[in-house]
Amino acid sequence: MKISEVSELYDMSADTLRYYEKIGLIPPVPKISGQRVYDENSLEHLTFIQCMKTSGLSLAEIKQYQTWFREGDATLLPRLKLLEAHYEQSQQRLKKLQESIDYVAYKIDLTKQNLTRYEGKE
């Protein structure tokens, strides 16, 4: 898959993809006729990065996790701790977001009621 296709698929700029390769978040991408061609392994790395980044994990934490992953089973405990801590933080952010959404819904309902009363006075 060419860089333009991967960029569109993952909604990441080509510069971001090259940066991830440069800092070692994804393995070196082979070039054919001067163009990067992303294989299934690269796409799996990008899926992981995108998911973790979207959920709030920093690039440094993602890189640390990947380093531990490459080091094998001896790093299972630190990987688990990192993921569990991140999961808990994500749950807390989700709870706060849901509370905000609920409040906005309440304000919408209240405003609709006020609008109905206002229109009824005309």
UniProtKB/TrEMBL annotation:
Keywords: DNA-binding. PANTHER family: HTH-TYPE TRANSCRIPTIONAL REGULATOR ADHR, REDOX-CYCLING DRUG-SENSING TRANSCRIPTIONAL ACTIVATOR SOXR. CDD domains: HTH_YyaN (cd01109). GO terms for molecular function: DNA binding; DNA-binding transcription factor activity. Residues 1-68 form the HTH merR-type domain. The keyword DNA damage does not apply. The keyword Glycosyltransferase does not apply. SUPFAM superfamilies: Putative DNA-binding domain (SSF46955). This is HTH merR-type domain-containing protein. It comes from Vagococcus lutrae LBD1.
